[in-house]
Amino acid sequence: MNIDRTMGRALALALVPLIALAFALACMTCVAPAYAKKHFDAPTTVSDDITRLHVNKLDADTHEYVQGAKMAIIEKESGRVVDEWVTGSGTHENEKGLDVDVVYILREVEAPEGYSTVEDIEFVVNATEGTGIKILSQGADSELVESYKVNLYDKAATTENEVVVTQTKGNQSTTSTKPAPKTGDEAPLAPIAFGVALAILGVVALEMLKRRIKD
User: Fold this and answer.
1) Nearest 10 degrees: CA dihedral of 157, 163, 167, 171?
2) What share of the chain in percent tops pLDDT 70?
3) Nearest to 103 by CA among 148, 55, 136, 61
4) Tens of pLDDT along 115-157?
5) Is 24 exposed, middle or buried (0-12, 13-18, 19+ CB in 10 A)?
6) Which single residue of 96, 149, 193, 210 has CA 20 to 30 Å from 41?
7) How far apart are the first and last CA of the chain?
8) Pairing between strand 81-86 and 92-95?
9) Side-chain-side CA neighbours of residue 55 (13 Å)
């Protein structure tokens, strides 16, 4: 009888690890699918490091920084302004302030005195990391110089009576305006009027002379 009891206890002790192992396997079978669904079926997120845009505002002739231009980045669909600034003597950097696959407008709201505003740029931030932005539309006064960097070139503003003059001396160039030359279509009126008056006086004098000769 004692032998039977001893063997029973030994068998029970041997079964305890097996029962614990079976319980652990059962728990893993129930929990693992839910864990996998939570961690692998969740929406893929994009790193914030790629949502950036750098903007340089430069003089079209000298390529020096143009200061005092009022700029804005606008969400096209909603019209919401997501970033605005006044240009200075360096690059404006928008870091982690944009969303991927959203159409934005880069706009010069107001140009500094003496300059004309550039055309709007429409762009999206690519969802693939490292590919920067994609330009959808732009004018001739802007260019994408790196995957996430845009140069905007301001041209000197002119009026109908002014022309832009660029003078280069060594490695430096200066831009100024001067009165536009008059074309041949703009005939001087004063000499013409004076000539007409002389012709009329000549005719009158000739008629008076003819009358005196007859008399």
Assistant:
1) 30
2) 56
3) 136
4) 999 999 999 999 887 789 999 999 999 999 999 999 999 998 8
5) exposed
6) 96
7) 181
8) unpaired
9) 28
Full-prediction pTM beyond 0.90? Answer: no
Q: Do 125 and 83 meet the contact criterion of CB atoms below 8 Å apart?
A: no
Average pLDDT of the segment spanning 14-26: 64
Residue 179, token pair as written in the block: 């009165």
- Neighbour order of strands in the sheet with 142-146: 92-95, 52-59, 149-154, 142-146
Amino acid occupying residue 119: E
d(CA 186, CA 8) in angstroms, rounded, equals 124
DSSP-assigned letter for residue 65 = B
Helices (H), the chain: 2-40, 189-214
8 Å CB contact between 101 and 125: yes
Using an 8 Å Cβ cutoff, are 73 and 81 in contact? yes
CA–CA gap between residue 154 and residue 69 (Å, rounded)? 9
pLDDT for the residue numbered 26: 63
pLDDT tens for 190-212 read: 667 767 777 777 766 677 767 77
Q: Region 170-176: what's the mean pLDDT?
A: 45
